[in-house]
Amino acid sequence: MHDEALIRLAFFFGVLAAVAIGEVAAPRRQLTDSKARRWYTNLSLAAIDTAVVRLTLTVLPADMAVQAREHGWGFLNNVVLPPPAGIFLAFIALDLIIYLQHVLFHFLPVFWRLHRMHHTDLDIDVTTGNRFHPVEILLSAGIKLGAVALLGAPVVAVVAFEVALNATSMFNHGNIRLPLTLDRWLRLVVVTPDMHRVHHSVILRETNSNFGFNLPWWDRLAGTYRPQPEGGHGGMTIGLKEFRDPALLTLSRLLVQPFARKPA
Questions:
Q1: Is the pTM of this model over 0.90?
Q2: Cβ–Cβ under 8 Å, residues 200 and 116
């Protein structure tokens, strides 16, 4: 779907620019690593991930939604609901599935080897929201394709979810300082930067919390919600204990990292 690609691209650059400006105007933390090197690495990964998905998959989630509607696949294509209700239910269900996928990628060792690359960033900012291994992105796309087919999700819901997932990922990884009152109210409906930053703590029990990307409800319902890091946002250490050398976190090394016998 050509329009879907243009919509996603426009939102990607718009949100990237807006959050990047916010990071300069009101940073939450002092950066400890080279911003230029990290931005090059993380944005290169975003470009590689997009190319791999587009060149590898013949069907994308929005295309699957169209096929599901035409063939009558999935739950929502076999029940009578007002269109807004179907869109809302599909969006909520897709978000729950991504939450469960995220938990799975933390607790199954074979998936963690892929996902841990996301956590090796020594700082966290808007570009960290695009720091994923291409194999993880392919697996995630496959999960979404299956979910869209089983749900019979409307194409509008799928495009809205894809746009929101990428936008909120960049927003909640942003190194931006929000007023505490605003953050407290916002995190009732969306994952905020202060909420998600806890997930990037070097402390394992904090890493294994706050798994949500879009909606904050699943963490609260599942008991994986942690409101603040133990050391405070200014004092917490970002990343993983076994990956602290910036020289080993270059683009080429990150791409082969999941297949190494043991951490460097």
A1: yes
A2: no
